[in-house]
Structures are given as structure tokens and as C-alpha cells.
């Protein structure tokens, strides 16, 4: 089920009612929320409901196995086994097709003949990357003692809870399971904050992301050779805006929906395009993935504790695997490596070059430089192949003097507006929310209706799936 | 955030009664929040009912459409009666949208001033005043009078357009990609391809029209006004569909364009094969009878040696994934193969000048 649909609106109104009615009765409430979450997932594709249930079961069995062991070695073996089993479906559905094809072709190139690997094409179950990572978090956190062994029902609800199910945020067990186990307070719902997030998220997704995608991104990435250097700059920058509006829009809706149900989700974006370094960018972009990669990949690899060279290798390896997590293709791997190398260079600079005096010029230079690097990275992320990526970047050099096809005041204004918001003060928005929060429910509902009307009218017919659903 | 220390499972406790004081926002009890949600959804539904009704009208026949219309028609009628529709249509217009637009959207034909001033008079292509009887060459373009190519159809055409454009040299060929997802020749009430093709003919004056359409056509044939011409599965449907294909082709050819009609590809769902193959037969039969129109097969090209569906394409000992995971659409590599088939056919049938191609 997609958030910006009538289906979801009806679904949510019913779930909201059931959720708060059953709130005083923990077991019926949990069963109801699991059922609702599975309906939400099945709405997309009923065939993969078993997979969600299966990974939940594996996760809990792994955690039980860890908790029952007495020796550290046995605990570790149980943890590794649980993590491996949890990962298998993701590896199969997401990476088998890619690697079997690449190996088959490499063998043919090397004259080794046909390896006999079955070539298959698999449908990627929506959200599998997200709930698999959460399942791994649970097993590892039980092993580390960061969270207690939860009940079966709590684990099934933790992994399937519909607001985060298909595209995050990646919520840690110690953030969500305790919230599942307390009765939520029905007297104090932050409706103004939640509505602000939901309507803002819908606007970003339905209006901004849809517009820049259709008018700017698709033409430029579809046929780079037919576009000028300025078109290429606008198209690349537009994709930076699109993916931010699309993904942060989804996250905002997810956080807002959870808030209406009395849950607090972690923040996933914090003005990423105002970052002053790539390291800073990853502290602000998809924060819950960044911290997952840090806690469950970078640190187990040794982090920065095993010497300087190993630190740089760990950074690059973590980011490259992060790229692979986004998609089984060379351009995603390169995108991850690009960020890994960039961050490793940043770490080296911080270690060896003296810090320059802080000036406004320096700050803005760093912001501009970081944004430019991020945009170069986005080219590899969005393009359909490495060849297209280099062709588009080549337009920045050879495409000057050609007529511009897509540069319009609306295009430039939309991009500039979205980037300017990264620097806008938060206070006016907070004051507005505070003011609205004191309204009577009826005018508040009317304002919501008006907001929905404007968004529905400005948006295109139908809404494309969120970019991050495919990950 | 609440205290997150794990608590015993069997002792659920009330979260601390708390207003998010740090934010300064007032909070509300769940019952009043439900009022907010219901007011927002009901009022929005009322304001947007006419648009929702139009969108539901255009959905394929089925339970979802029936239920949607059953709910929306009375609401839209009340909206009409109270003049709310008029007000909301005005608001929609003020927001820069056409409230009466077909649910499938509209096309944006390139502006006349974008066209070369010397026009197609230099073209070797036939004009409407000179009905053609045999295939003719596609005219030789110049930088000042580029070849005008338009790609029309459904989502397959949208994908193909991207990769076909890459086959042509931008200095000599201008490609207009007009693929519209979920459209076809059956439901003209959803998207009127006949009207759109006429607009393209008069506005863009294409030299070449590449068509890839038909996947969404396994439905009743309806007019732009919504009248049913032939029901799906009826005896009349194939003939009526053929007439539409013929009319669509002739709009393009009579306007002076050459037409390359790309057939539907083999798909993984075998139960769809009979209908799709019948459509392909119709496409091929029609273009065979129309001069300056040709057919590009994709069915056999993407089938394996046994004539079955395969997502892979083997070439020189290398396998390439060419089909999307839905078993219908293509990967970029697949669209590139179709685009190459199209230009090969154009060179063979209409002597498309090699200098127009990037390869």
C-alpha cells in the first residue's frame, strides 16, 4: 500500500480507530496491529507475506539461541548463524540474479565455458532490505546485551509495524520494542506536529519529486547527449532534489503516521544538503542507515581501532557495501565506493592537515564543495549504467554553447527553493505548528482537507512508487 | 521520547502522561484527533469528488471501479448541486490545471515556433495532398530542417523513446517522446490517442511516428465520451479494434509521416499470449495494407529457442538481462535492442539515411 493513496487514507482511519480502542488491552492490540501491518504489506504483493513472517521467525529463533547460550563463543556462533540465516533471503532475492549473470559472462570471457549457474530473474520483495536490517539489529543487540529477548509477538510487530515497513526509517529494537510494550497515552497526541510532517511529506513527494522527475530528471538522464551543459547541471541538481523530496517525504509521512499512533520514530534526515563534508552529509542523510552501517558493519570490521590504513579500508568497504545495499549493479557499487573514498580522504585530511580558521567563506565553500561532490555521486546512483553516468558528466565539459531545453524559471525556482529550505530557520514552522495545535479539531480538519486538495491538484495523476521502495 | 528501557512483557504500563512540552505544541486526545482525520478526509473527498469520479470512471471494469463509483457518484452529485464542483474546478484552474482533462493526462506537443521555418516542403515524404500507394524513402534531413520523430504509445513507448532517441544524431533528428503510461487505443475516455495523434500531426508535423501500444487494450472499446463501442470478448471487438488501429495509422500516414509499429513482446504470463498475438496480427495486417507503414516484431526476438519467454538475451556467448522483473517491461538493455530493431527496419523499409544515426 502506498501512503499517498485513497486506499491508505481509508486504511489508516480504520487502523487509528482500532488502535486506540484496543490500546488498553495489550494482547488484542498487538494482534490487531500485526494483522493491520500484514494487510498493509499484502496490499502490495500478497505472495511475500510469508517472507516477512519467515524473517521475523528466523530473527526471534536466532535471538533465543543467543540468549540461551552460556559461553561467549557459543553466543557468538548463535549470533553469526542467526544473522547469516536472516541475510540469506536478501542475498538470494537481491543479489543472486546479478552475480550469477556476471559470473556466467566472466567465465565466458575467460574461455571457461558455461558455469551452469541457473540464470533467473527474481522479483525483489518490497522493503526486504529494511526489515532484514532490523532483524539483524535485533539478533546482534540481544547478543551485545543492548536489548532484552522480546516475546514472539513483540518481534513480529517490531519487524512488521506498517509505518516503517517498506522504506524505513530503520528503527532499532531498543527504540521500538519498549514502545510496543507500554500502553500509549491517548490523551496527548501531537496532532499538529504529525499533520505538519504528513502534509509536508505528501507535498514533497507528490508535488516536488513528481515535477522535477518528469520535467527535469528523466529528459536529462534519459538522453544526456541531447542536452547542454547547463541542462546537465539542472538535471543532476534536480535529481538531488528529487531523491531528497521523495525519500525524506516518505520518512516524514512515516514518522507523522507513527506519531498519530503514539510512537516516536528516529529522525532520518537533517538538512543533508547543508553538510560541510561527506562525513557530515552521512550524519544528515538517511541517518538510520548510516548508524546501522556504523554499528553493525564498520565497528565489527574494526572501525578506527586497528590502525590508520585499516580505518580507511573499513570506511571504503562500509560505504561500498552500503552502495551495494541500494542495488545490485555496478553503478551502485561505484556510488558507494565514491562516497567511501571521499570520506577516507576527508578522514586523512582531518588527521594530517591543519584546521583552517573558521570563516563564513570557508563554511560556504565547504557546503558548495560537498553538495557538488554529492551531486556527482548522484549521477552514478541515478544513471542506468556506468556509460550513461560518464556520458552525462562529459556534458559538463563538452556541452557548453548548446541550446538549453529544460532550463525554465519554474525549474530553477523549484530547485533553488528546495535547496534554500535546507538553510531556512526552523522557528517560523515551529511557531506555526504551535499556533495550529491550539485550534479546534474541526477547523484543523478543514485546514488538512484544504492542504490535501492543493497537493492532489498540483500533483500528477497517479503517484509513482517511492524511489526507496526498490531498495 | 518515552523511557525505552525494556520492561517485562507481562506488565504493560501506561506511558507517562506527557505533552511534548519541549516543542511547545499543544496535544489532543485520540477522540478529537479522529475528528480531525475524519473532517480532513471527508471534506477533501467532497471537494475532490468530481476529480475522483472522473478517475474512477476511467478505471478498468471491475469491483474496484464499481465500488468507487458507487461511493463517489452521489457525493459528486451533491457537490454539483451545491455548486462546490464549480468552485473547486475554479480552484483547480487557478492552480494551473485543467479540471476537465482526461484522467490519463494530456500531451505536450512542441510549440510551432520550435519547428523549422522551411517546414516539411523540402521533405521527400508524401503530403496529405499526395496520397501514397507504395513505401517511400524517409526524407534526408539537414541541420536546419531536422527529421522529426515522435514515439507514441503506452509505458513501453515511454521506455523505448528514451533509447530510440539515443540512436539518432541530435544534430539531424529531433525526437519527441510522447509515451503515456496506462494508455492505449481501447479507452479513449481515459486518454484520447486519436485526438492526441491529430494534435501531434498538426503541431509537430512528424516525419516518422514510432508506435508501441496495446498492452492496456484488453478492455471494452470506449469513445472519448465514454460510450462503449465493443465489449471485451465480444464478436465485434477484434474488428472494431482493427478499425481503431487502422484509423490511428492513417492519421499519421495521411499527415505525411512514415509509421513504424512495434509489436507487443512475448511476456511471462502465458495466459495473455492469445490476446497479445491476436493484437499483433491486427497491427501487422493493418500496416501491411498502409503504404509508408511497417511492422517491427518483438515477440520472436525476445523468445528463447523453444519460443518461450526468457528474461535474458544471449549474444556472442554473453547473457544480458533484458526484461524487467514484472515479466513485461524491459531493462535499458532490452529497450536498446528494440530501438536497434526499429532503426534497422527503418533503414531497410524506408532507406533511413545512415548519417541520421549515432552508430
Question: Would you kindly provide a written description of the structure presented here, covering whatever features stand out?
Answer:
With 471 residues, chain A is mainly α. Chain A is 70% helix and 0% strand. Chain A has 2 domains: 6-181, no CATH class; 191-420, no CATH class. Chain A has 18 helices and 1 strand. In chain A, helix 8 (191-222) packs antiparallel against helix 9 (229-260) and helix 14 (360-382) packs across helix 15. The radius of gyration of chain A is 23 Å and the shape is globular. By secondary structure, chain B is of the alpha/beta class. Chain B folds into 2 domains: 30-94, no CATH class; 112-356, Rossmann fold (3-Layer(aba) Sandwich), CATH 3.40.50. Chain B is built from 8 helices and 10 strands. In chain B, the strands form 3 sheets. Chain B has a 5-stranded parallel β-sheet with strand order 3-2-4-7-8, with helices on both faces. In chain B, helix 1 crosses helix 2 and helix 6 crosses helix 7 (273-289). At the A-B interface, helix 1, helix 4, helix 7, strand 1 and helix 8 of A face strand 1, helix 1, helix 3, helix 4 and strand 10 of B.
CATH arch. level architecture of the largest domain in chain B? 3-Layer(aba) Sandwich
| DSSP E strands of chain B, number | 10
CATH class of the largest domain in chain B: Alpha Beta
Count of discrete domains of chain B: 2
N-to-C span of chain A: 16 Å
Helical content class of chain B: 25-40%
Mean of all residue-level pLDDT scores of chain A = 89
How many domain modules of chain A?
2
| Class derived from helix and strand content of chain B | alpha/beta
Q: Count all strands of chain A and give the number.
A: 1
Give the count of helical stretches of chain A.
Answer: 18
Low-confidence stretches of chain A: 465-469
From the spread of the alpha carbons, the general shape of chain A counts as globular
**Shape field of chain B:** globular
Give the topology string of chain B: H per helix, E per strand.
Answer: EHHHEHEHEEEHEHEEEH
User: Oligomeric form of this entry?
Assistant: heterodimer
Amino acid at each position: 500500500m502506498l501512503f499517498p493513496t485513497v486506499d491508505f487514507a481509508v486504511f489508516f482511519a480504520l487502523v487509528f480507530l482500532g488502535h486506540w480502542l484496543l490500546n488498553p488491552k495489550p494482547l488484542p492490540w498487538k494482534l490487531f496491529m500485526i494483522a493491520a501491518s500484514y494487510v498493509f504489506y499484502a496490499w502490495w504483493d500478497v505472495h511475500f507475506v510469508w517472507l516477512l513472517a519467515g524473517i521475523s521467525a528466523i530473527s526471534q529463533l536466532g535471538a533465543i539461541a543467543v540468549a540461551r547460550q552460556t559461553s561467549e563463543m557459543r553466543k557468538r556462533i548463535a549470533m553469526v548463524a542467526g544473522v547469516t540465516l536472516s541475510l540469506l533471503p536478501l542475498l538470494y532475492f537481491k543479489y543472486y540474479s546479478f552475480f550469477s549473470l556476471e559470473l556466467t559472462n566472466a567465465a565466458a570471457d575467460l574461455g571457461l565455458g558455461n558455469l551452469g549457474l541457473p540464470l533467473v530473474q527474481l522479483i525483489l520483495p518490497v522493503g526486504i532490505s529494511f526489515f532484514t536490517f532490523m532483524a539483524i539489529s535485533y539478533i546482534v543487540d540481544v547478543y551485545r546485551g543492548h536489548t532484552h529477548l522480546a516475546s514472539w509477538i513483540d518481534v513480529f510487530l517490531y519487524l512488521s509495524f506498517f509505518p516503517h515497513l517498506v522504506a524505513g526509517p530503520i528503527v532499532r529494537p531498543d527504540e521500538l520494542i519498549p514502545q510496543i510494550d507500554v500502553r500509549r497515552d491517548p490523551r496527548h497526541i501531537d496532532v499538529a506536529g504529525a499533520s505538519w510532517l504528513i502534509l509536508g511529506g505528501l507535498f514533497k513527494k507528490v508535488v516536488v519529486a513528481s515535477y522535477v522527475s518528469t520535467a527535469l530528471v528523466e529528459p536529462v538522464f534519459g538522453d544526456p547527449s541531447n542536452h547542454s551543459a547547463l541542462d546537465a547541471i539542472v538535471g543532476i541538481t534536480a535529481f538531488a532534489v528529487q531523491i531528497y523530496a521523495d525519500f525524506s517525504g516518505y520518512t516524514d509521512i512515516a514518522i507523522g503516521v507513527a506519531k498519530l499512533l503514539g510512537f516516536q520514530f528516529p529522525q532520518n534526515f537533517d538538512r543533508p544538503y547543508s553538510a560541510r563534508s561527506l562525513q557530515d552529509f552521512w550524519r544528515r542523510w538517511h541517518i538510520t542507515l548510516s548508524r546501522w552501517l556504523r554499528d553493525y558493519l564498520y565497528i565489527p570490521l574494526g572501525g578506527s581501532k586497528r590502525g590508520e590504513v585499516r580505518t580507511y579500508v573499513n570506511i571504503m568497504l562500509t560505504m561500498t557495501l552500503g552502495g551495494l545495499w541500494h542495488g545490485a549493479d555496478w553503478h551502485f557499487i561505484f556510488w558507494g565506493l565514491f562516497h567511501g573514498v571521499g570520506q577516507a580522504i576527508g578522514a586523512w585530511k582531518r588527521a594530517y592537515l591543519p584546521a583552517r580558521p573558521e570563516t563564513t567563506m570557508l563554511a560556504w565553500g565547504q557546503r558548495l564543495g560537498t553538495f557538488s561532490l554529492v551531486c556527482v555521486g548522484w549521477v552514478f546512483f541515478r544513471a542506468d549504467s556506468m556509460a550513461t553516468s560518464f556520458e552525462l558528466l562529459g556534458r559538463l565539459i563538452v556541452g557548453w554553447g548548446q541550446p538549453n531545453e529544460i532550463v525554465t524559471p519554474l525549474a530553477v525556482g523549484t530547485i533553488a527553493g528546495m535547496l534554500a529550505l535546507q538553510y531556512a530557520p526552523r522557528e517560523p514552522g515551529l511557531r506555526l505548528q504551535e499556533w495550529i495545535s491550539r485550534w479546534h479539531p474541526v477547523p484543523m480538519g478543514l485546514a488538512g482537507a484544504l492542504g490535501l486538495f492543493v497537493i492532489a491538484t498540483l500533483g500528477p495523476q497517479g503517484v509513482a512508487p517511492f524511489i526507496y521502495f526498490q531498495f | 521520547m518515552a523511557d525505552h528501557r525494556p520492561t517485562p512483557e507481562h506488565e504493560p504500563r501506561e506511558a507517562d502522561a506527557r505533552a511534548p512540552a519541549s516543542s511547545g505544541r499543544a496535544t489532543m486526545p485520540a477522540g478529537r484527533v479522529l475528528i480531525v482525520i475524519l473532517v480532513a478526509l471527508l471534506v477533501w473527498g467532497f471537494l475532490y469528488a468530481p476529480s475522483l469520479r472522473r478517475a474512477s470512471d476511467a478505471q478498468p471494469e471491475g469491483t474496484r471501479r464499481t465500488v468507487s463509483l458507487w461511493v463517489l457518484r452521489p457525493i459528486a452529485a451533491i457537490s454539483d448541486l451545491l455548486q462546490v464542483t464549480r468552485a473547486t474546478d475554479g480552484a483547480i484552474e487557478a492552480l494551473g490545471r485543467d479540471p476537465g482533462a482526461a484522467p490519463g493526462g494530456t500531451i505536450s506537443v512542441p510549440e510551432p515556433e520550435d519547428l523549422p521555418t522551411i517546414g516539411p516542403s523540402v521533405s521527400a515524404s508524401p503530403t496529405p495532398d499526395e496520397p501514397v500507394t507504395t513505401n517511400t524513402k524517409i526524407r534526408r534531413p539537414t541541420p536546419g530542417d531536422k527529421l522529426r520523430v515522435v514515439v507514441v504509445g503506452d509505458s513501453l513507448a515511454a521506455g523505448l523513446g528514451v533509447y530510440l532517441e539515443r540512436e539518432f544524431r541530435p544534430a539531424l533528428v529531433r525526437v519527441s517522446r510522447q509515451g503515456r503510461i496506462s494508455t492505449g487505443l481501447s479507452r479513449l475516455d481515459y486518454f484520447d490517442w486519436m485526438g492526441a495523434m491529430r494534435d501531434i500531426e498538426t503541431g509537430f508535423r512528424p516525419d516518422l511516428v514510432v508506435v508501441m501500444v496495446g498492452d492496456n487494450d484488453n478492455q471494452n472499446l470506449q469513445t472519448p465520451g465514454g460510450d462503449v463501442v465493443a465489449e471485451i470478448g465480444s464478436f465485434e471487438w477484434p474488428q472494431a479494434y482493427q478499425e481503431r488501429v487502422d484509423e490511428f495509422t492513417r492519421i499519421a500516414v495521411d499527415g505525411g509521416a512514415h509509421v513504424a509499429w512495434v509489436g507487443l513482446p512475448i511476456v511471462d504470463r502465458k495466459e495473455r499470449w492469445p490476446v497479445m498475438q491476436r493484437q499483433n496480427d491486427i497491427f501487422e495486417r493493418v500496416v501491411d495494407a498502409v503504404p509508408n507503414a511497417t511492422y517491427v516484431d518483438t515477440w520472436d526476438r525476445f523468445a528463447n529457442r523453444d519460443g518461450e519467454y526468457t528474461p535474458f538475451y544471449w549474444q556472442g556467448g554473453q547473457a544480458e538481462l533484458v526484461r524487467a522483473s514484472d515479466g513485461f517491461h524491459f531493462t535499458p538493455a532490452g529497450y536498446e535492442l528494440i530501438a536497434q530493431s526499429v532503426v534497422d527496419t527503418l533503414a531497410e523499409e524506408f532507406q533511413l539515411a545512415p548519417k541520421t544515426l549515432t552508430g
